[in-house]
Amino acid sequence: MTHIAVPHPGNEQQSQWLQIRRLKPDWVILRGWGVMNPTALKAAAKAGFPRDRMVGVWWSGAEEDTVPAGDAARGYIAAAFNLPGTDFPVMQDILKYVYAKGKGEMDDKSRVGSIYYTRGVVAGIVTAESIRTAQDKFGKKPLTGEQMRWGIENLRIDESRLKQVGAVGLMNTLRVSCADHEGGGAVKFMQWDGKKWAAITDWIGSDQSIVRSMIEESAAKYAKEKGIAPRDC
Predict the structure, then answer these.
(1) Is there a contact between 80 and 61 (Cβ–Cβ < 8 Å)?
(2) Side-chain-facing half-sphere of 26: CA atoms under 13 Å
(3) For FRET with 122, which of 51, 172, 221, 226 sits at 20 to 30 Å CA-CA?
(4) Which domains does the chain have, with CATH numbers?
(5) pLDDT tens digits, residue range 114-169?
(6) 217 Cβ partners below 8 Å, 6+ apart?
(7) Is 143 in contact with 154 (CB distance < 8 Å)?
(8) Chain Cα centroid distance, residue 152
(9) Mean pLDDT for the chain overall
(10) pTM for the full model?
């Protein structure tokens, strides 16, 4: 594996893609954000590197990363914690009870259902369900920070609950704990077809055996340096 740095903001990548062309890698993992992502896709096309051999992390996989690149983005793959679209029941409710009643705040209605939009919907679901979880334990009242943290760390969103809130397929099930703030860390991979994202895999869970030990070691070192007492989960 070769790491290739892209200086901020990343709107000039000619030397990086000349290096990639010389290396002839099987895959390129894109960990960019902002303008560096469409720049990378256009530079890859110019260098002759296939976009269906480029995989972006979850913050490199929105319409803002592909649309500006035009045809150069076709075939690009990215990870996602949530899918785009307006066919999900919760999205249909938003269209019916918010936008159809003139209460929506998006001037560009075409962005409703985009990756960033549905990511916000998922964040709202997680937040509301965490509050509900905490209030089931501590009572229907304003919550303290500690109580809210308990609600998040005991969050359970199963298939049944996803169906109730109209989010089946929009997001994966979640089971958060003190030791696992990712809730499993599963992602789907999407591919850009030139106009929209399409899911090309089922939910794939992360293999914690690969990186968890490194995370624990790094966290323990940081805690020792800063004099922080780690929580006992």
Answers:
(1) yes
(2) 1
(3) 51
(4) 1-81+186-228 (3.40.50.2300), 83-184 (no CATH)
(5) 999 999 999 999 999 999 999 999 999 999 999 999 999 999 999 999 999 999 99
(6) none
(7) no
(8) 18
(9) 96
(10) 0.91
